[in-house]
Amino acid sequence: MEQAEFAAEAAYNAHIASPGDSLLRAECTRKKEERNQALRRCSAVLLEARAKRLGASPSPRWQYLHGVAAPHPHPLESVVLRTDLGRVCALPRQQANLLVRHFVRFHVPYRLILLLLLAALLWFLVAGKWIGLSRRMNLTWPSAALCLAQPLAPTTC
Q1: How far is CA 150 from CA 19, 22, 139, 140, 147, in A?
Q2: What is the chain's pLDDT, residue by residue, as a tens digit (157 residues)?
Q3: In this structure, what are the phi and psi dihedrals at residue 99, rounded to the nearest 5 degrees?
């Protein structure tokens, strides 16, 4: 029993952050950022050297020939979705189709069912009819049915 309590306490203490943890985490993050910056500088230098070797300008700029239309800002196989907040989201066509299928499959049927139920309720409230029944219909029961429905009543059938 004591071993289980000791193991539980050791596991609990292992998850408690010590004051040195934040310093170690900050140092590790700083070293990763320095490594990333060095890799970025190295790749930029290699690209510039390759561009010079090929005779191209190290800083490329776009030039459109006279009479040539500028390319579409999104790939041709993408769909642009606009939200009501003005944001634009370019999705590949396959993902956009999946999004439309999800909306049609999960949102439209529920809304359609709710709309039909609401229409039936309004029809009942306004017209007083529910699938052919009317308030003015005579719904009297035959006496035999009443005798069966009330077995404790004296039988006069």
Answers
A1: 82, 81, 17, 15, 5
A2: 677 777 777 766 666 656 666 777 788 888 888 888 888 887 888 877 777 777 665 454 555 555 555 555 555 544 444 444 444 455 555 555 565 566 656 666 677 778 888 888 877 777 765 555 555 555 555 555 555 555 555 555 5
A3: -65, -45
Contact 58, 48 (CB under 8 A): yes
Angle at alpha carbon of residue 100, lines to 94 and 105, rounded to 5°: 125
**Domain coordinates of the chain in residue numbers?**
19-60, 89-127
Q: How many CA atoms lie within 13 A of 64 on its CB side?
A: 6
The amino acid at residue 51 is A
At position 10, the amino acid (one-letter code) is A
User: Structure tokens of 106?
Assistant: 């999960």
Place of tokens 């790749």: 43
